[in-house]
Structure formats: structure tokens, C-alpha cells
## 1
Amino acid sequence: MKYCDLNQNILEWGSEEIAIPYRSPLDGRVHRYFVDFYIKVLDVNGDVQKYLVEVKPKKQTREPKKQQRMTKSYIYEVTEYVKNQAKWEAAREFCEDNRMQFKIITEDELKV
């Protein structure tokens, strides 16, 4: 957040301000997904770009490896993965409709 405040190329930003409806494949109901960040940026060409950014551990962006035993942690990983996929698909559609880009950032991008 401090980075966003101090970066002169970031014209505006917000945290968890945009709610995107999505249908959960777990219960079939519509829920609201609050994306981590909205960022409006002035790029190197002088164009304004708008992004919705989700920050997640890389492990949560990959499908869990199939296991023989259905442990509580494995079931949790699978349900979170399925739920995140539904959220991210809704975010991509929202961004496409609103001329924005959706980005998922992991620890790989956050390393300095």
C-alpha cells in the first residue's frame, strides 16, 4: 500500500473496494468477491491502464495434487482451489467488460 502511495505512476488505487458477483460451484449460490486491489496506472507509453489485482500464495493458484487419502487439509485445498477458480473467472469477465486487466500476483512477483 505504501508502494502505491509513493509511486507517481499510480494515479489511484483502492483495497477491496470492488465487489464482483460469482456463483460458487460449492453451493450454487451467488456470492461477492472482493478483489484485493484496484490500481489505475500511467504506463511507459503515457496510456492509462486499470488493473484488478489478487495476491495469493502460489500454492493456492495451482490445482492440488490428487491424494489417495481424503484428509481435512486436502479437502480444504481442493475446495479453496475450486472456489478461487470461480472467483477469478468472474473477475476476468468483469475486467473484459470494463476494459481492465486481471492479475494474480504470487510471492514470485513480490520478491525484490
## 2
Amino acid sequence: MRFVPAKRVSLIDDLMKDSFGGFNYLPAMKTNIIEKDGGYRLEIELPGFNKEEIKVELQQGYLIVKAERNEEKQEADDQGNVIRRERSSGSCSRRFYIGDSYSDEDIIAKYENGILELSLRALSLEEKENKKVIAIE
């Protein structure tokens, strides 16, 4: 068995890791979908976002969730000379097909502790079958 010494991390390696391994990469939104009493609840993980940075839309049968933020960090020494300044931005989005039967009034959104919870009410049988039929001449 051979002993391999631990890799030394330089300041440059540390800065690169901080820049590329941090906020610039946003993983996909992990989502739980729960069916209850004919309705649905989506629990979407969005840690670190503020409520104002999250947007939920309903377009052509798709429920679209977007999260976007811009951040600027600045560190200075005692005299106020800038030692390090970083800017980062990132966004992520996810779409769920829910059909044309839902309207924005059928969806309730709540964001707390990094979890966006979307509740879709149960649709009646009439609402589910309410499809537009085109008459053939």
C-alpha cells in the first residue's frame, strides 16, 4: 500500500473553487409531487432564494417555476481598498404539464424555509372533461 500525500490547496485554487463551485451553478429544482384528495401538492426545493426572486406562471397548460438572483460581494481592507470583488448571477427553471383545465385561481403558492409549495385544487369530473370540441361541417 502506498501513501499519497494530500494535495496542497493554493490561494488561486481556493478562489477558483469559490467562483465556479458556488452560486454560478444552480442544480435542478428537486421536487416532490403529492396527490391528496384528488388535488396535487408540489414541494420544490429553492434554498437561498428570497420570495421576490421566485416567479410562478401558468402558460398553455404548463406550470412554470423560475428562480433568478444577482449577487455582488465586496471585501475591503481597513483603509477601504478593494481586495476582492465578485459578481455572480444565476437562474433555474422547471416546467410541469398540468393541462388546460387549471387556471391561476386554482393554484395556491407558499414559500417558507427554502421550500416552494404549490397546491393545485382537485378538479371536478365536469372540469376534467370540459374539453372544447370542434364541430365538423
## 3
Amino acid sequence: MLQITIPGRELYDEAKEEFITTKPATLSLEHSLLSISKWESKWHVPFLGRQEKTREQVIDYIRCMTITPNVDPYVYEGITQKLMDVVNAYITDPMTATTFSDKTLRPSREIVTSELIYYAMTEYGIPFECQKWHLNRLMTLIHVCSAKNAPKKKMNKRDILSQNSKLNALRRARSGSRG
């Protein structure tokens, strides 16, 4: 969980033609599958896609990440670029000690949406309580499940022949035989 403090400020609401004063607010944020699901249901685009997000979309994602109850909607107007950088650093944090070799990480061309992540959770028997985990930690767990459930790679013909030759040599050495 990340906590950020948004300073109070004075805004002008053009629709109501009045000034609005916001108080400083401390927000608790969670970058989770649940947050992404809320955001995608509003914007109808994949959050994890390569498409650049507008400032409005980023602010709205911070709104979806907020677990603090009863936040004044005008508070989000006070989010500065510095606060966005803090939130972005939190979003990109791996949140786990698990690492993968380059061979196991292949970029996929598949567009990942919240529904595909939920599908992977059901496929691997991951409980739905994990939808509230930091997304990177959940994605690492899914990747681990995928790697552990992947079929073992078959050896090519040359490797099989080499392995058999070594085993035969060991057996001959143990038994004192020549062939």
C-alpha cells in the first residue's frame, strides 16, 4: 500500500461558477487487479496496453486505486507531477524477491486485460482474495505457476545420443566391460 498526501488548494469550478477550497488529504492506494478492473470498465481500453494514457486517465486510475473512504472528488485535482512520479514508482516496484532468467520472460503480443488475469487465477487455482495484492506480485505468482506447470522440454537427438554415450561409458567402467 502507498500513502500520498495531496495538499489543499483553491480551485474554480467553471460549471458552477464558484471557488472551491480543498483540504489536504492523505490517500491510501493499492495497485491491484481490482483497481485495474474498475479502470478498464470505465475506459474500455486495456490498462496494461502500450497506448499512452492521458492525464485524465492517470488521475482516474489513482482514483480507482484509492482505498481511503469518502474522498472529496476535487482532491484529485491537486495531484502534482511529483506525486504522479511517486505513484508510478510504486506501480513499477516488483514487490517480490522472485526473479526470472531472460529465457523465461518472453514478451507476449497478446493484449492483457483484467479478464485474462482473472482467467489465469482460476486456471492455477489462485484465490480471488489475491486480486487485492499488488499487481506485480500477483503477475509474478501467475508466472511461477505457469513455469512450474509447463511441460518439460524434450532433448534433441544429439543430446540424447551424447547422454546415452556417457551413461554407457560409466556402466562399462563400473562393470569392467568393453562393450
